[in-house]
Model the fold of this input.
Amino acid sequence: MTIEITSEMKELIDNALSDKYPCIVGTASSDGLPNVSYKGSVMVFSETELAFWERTRKGGFAQLTDNPNIVVMYRNTELRKSWRFYGEVTIYDSGEIKDQVLEKTVQPELDRDPDRLGVAVIIKVTKITTLGGEIVQEVSG
Done:
């Protein structure tokens, strides 16, 4: 099976911050120290990728440079929709991909990075589950 982020997922994730349900990102250092943080800029980048604008370069970001594994949780209690997206990240601090993510980043996040010192983080999604752990989609092989 391959990953195909649905149109419903795209709509909800791309509007998560304005809907007041920002995504939560979980990372871990190379020695297993966990970190979670809200990311208002999480977006669907392609049918198989999520992305976010990392403006702080702290905590979880520092861990991603050592351990590219990540989980993104979306939960909208009003609509009773929720998913976990697991994957591996690639960080772009310059170039076309960085520019594309910057262009798609929601304005409130851009306002917090007026000098545009952030980086683009692309997540190649390898598994999508419910919050209960049931697999919705998973890369096979």
Remarks:
- The longest strand covers residues 81-92.
- Residues 57 and 118 are 7 Å apart (CA to CA).
- The longest helix spans residues 96-104.
